[in-house]
Every structure is written in structure tokens, then in C-alpha cells.
Design a protein that fits this description.
143 residues, mainly alpha, 3-stranded antiparallel β-sheet, 4 helices, 64% helix, elongated
Length: 143
């Protein structure tokens, strides 16, 4: 069951949440690009929650891949991961609107949109998991 399409979606979500965050910047302030790793050195707990949420989302998506025998738990963990990414997206929007130095010209990076891509992939994975679950239930009804 690891070769199912939801595995591909969950693996892509893991790569987006855990790998691409090191490549794409979150925002740029005064010619300095701010990456996820740079947020660990901030004093505010809100800034430290962003990389933590990215890593939790990545680990949860990776663990969900191997729960293919328990589709209900896989589906629930997918929804929890969607909620984590929605929280992360809200936190990023809030912090981008209140970032220090906003009076200077600043640009938002593509890293701000990674939670949206992760949410989209997780929704596709949950849809495929639900489809598999419905198929198994329909076969059980015939017996």
C-alpha cells in the first residue's frame, strides 16, 4: 500500500515543509534575506514557532506515510497536519504584516506560500485516503 497516490502527496508535502524551507526565503528586509533558520535566533517566541511548526508538519506528514494499514488514523493525522499548516499560514501572515523595518522597502519571499502548497497536497492525500477507505468499505459490504 505504500505505492498509493496518497504516499506521493504526503512525500511531496514532507519535502515542501521540511526541505524547501531552506531554499526559499520568507521575506527580505533591507537587502537581507530572512530564512527559516534565521528565525531561531530571534528573541520572540512567535518567530521560533514558525520553524518548529514547519518541522512538526514535515515529520507528521512523513509518519503518516507509514500508517497505511490504519487509514482512519492516516486521515485524522492528515487533517491535524492541515490545521498545523493553517496555523502556520496565519502566523506568517501576522508576522509579515508586523515585521520590524516594514517602513523600509521589504519583499515577501516565496517561502510565505509554502504552507498553502502543503495544505493543497495534504487535501489531495486525504481525498485519496478517503477514496481507498470507501473502496474497502464497499468490498466489505459485498461479502
Amino acid at each position: 500500500m505504500i505505492q498509493r497516490i496518497q504516499t506521493v502527496y504526503l512525500l511531496l508535502s514532507t519535502i515542501v515543509s521540511g526541505g524547501l524551507i531552506f531554499i526559499f526565503n520568507l521575506w527580505e528586509v533591507a537587502e537581507k534575506k530572512i530564512f527559516i533558520v534565521d528565525l531561531f535566533s530571534q528573541e520572540s517566541i512567535l518567530y521560533k514557532m514558525i520553524p518548529t511548526a514547519f518541522f512538526v508538519s514535515s515529520i507528521l506528514a512523513f509518519v503518516t506515510i507509514f500508517l497505511f494499514k490504519n487509514r482512519q488514523l492516516q486521515f485524522v493525522l492528515g487533517r491535524v497536519n492541515i490545521l498545523i499548516n493553517l496555523f502556520l499560514l496565519g502566523l506568517l501572515i501576522y508576522l509579515s504584516l508586523t515585521v520590524s523595518g516594514e517602513t523600509a522597502v521589504s519583499e515577501k519571499g516565496i517561502g510565505m506560500f509554502l504552507p498553502i502548497l502543503a495544505i493543497l497536497l495534504l487535501v489531495f492525500a486525504n481525498k485519496a485516503i478517503k477514496k481507498d477507505e470507501d473502496l474497502v468499505k464497499s468490498v466489505d459490504r459485498l461479502r
